[in-house]
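Incident log, structure service

09:12 report received: a user says their structure output differs between two submissions of the same chain.
09:20 pulled the input from the user's history:
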Amino acid sequence: MGLVLAVIAVALMFEYINGFHDTANSIATVVSTKVLTPRQAVTMSAFCNLGGALIGTAVATTVGNTLVDSQFVTLPTLLFALLGASLWNLLTWWHGLPSSSSHALIGSLCGATLASADARWSIIHWSFQDPVSHAWKGLIPQVVLPMLLSPLVGLVLGFVFMGLLLVLLRRWKPYTINRLFGRAQLLSAAWMSISHGTNDAQKTMGILALTLFTATRTGVFDGLPDWLDFLRAPKFEVSLWIKVVCALTMAAGTAAGGWRIIATVGHKMVRLLPVHGFAAQTAAATVIQLATHGGIPLSTTQVISSSIMGVGATKRLSAVKWSVVSQMAAAWLLTLPATALMGYGLHRAFTLWDYLWH
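09:34 re-ran on a clean worker, output below:
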């Protein structure tokens, strides 16, 4: 029982870190355009993230029940998966790099599960066709391909949407445009925050649901008092209390703010005006909502960052600081393999320590 509580505690720690690590995804543009102060933006984002986190469970099901063989998932597996992802998030946050919390958790989960299965690669569900929906699921169609395609989609959509706005507004005065889109950006920032909550909070929901299912399956909850019966999970299911706890934890983390990453996304890549912020947030939120509907654990970091690049490129290509972009791209590409190694290494180190100790 103690190990279950430890996994739950670390899962909520990851959700909290995820909140302040990915705050920049939702509010960097609204802060950089000075539509809201940083504190106002963080408060608004926390509230909208809370609402978004309570919507749906498609992404939670993907993370908790689709990517790896749950028969090889143990409580230590989940603990080290969460620790590996949390360490990566803290490392990239410290350096101000907007990496993907989603890919960090997925990579670490795959690595830790590989360790618990003695490096049998077959325990990872690479790709399979769902017999009911006939949709393709697994690590490649639901994680790897979206990881490669979503930045491109965000870039193109941001560029096209901003281009259309430039054509429609070509006769408007700058003062009128700034005033109108300063207000409109409040709506796009709120929608971006809701989209972030619907996608990102669900990853930890999936891990918590998998934790309770694993504990129930392995007999950890045998003899559990009746008042703790809500912890039992004879099947994989995201309960309402899991949704509420994860939503509140992410909102609290968001309220803490992630100023290092906000500086990178909102100021270092490209100089933005309210109309640019509106275009980038609207394009990114659209992509994230479509992915969430399909149960795809998308990187909100990648999408909003690439949307900002697309919007900035409508000025001129040199308006985007590509040296900063290259650093971000390196962090994106490294996240899955690096966290897989961290999850695998942490689990192996624990196994060796346990063997030597006993």
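09:41 both user submissions now match this output. Likely a transient worker issue. Closing.
09:42 reviewer note: The two ends are 21 Å apart (CA to CA). The chain has one domain: 2-345.
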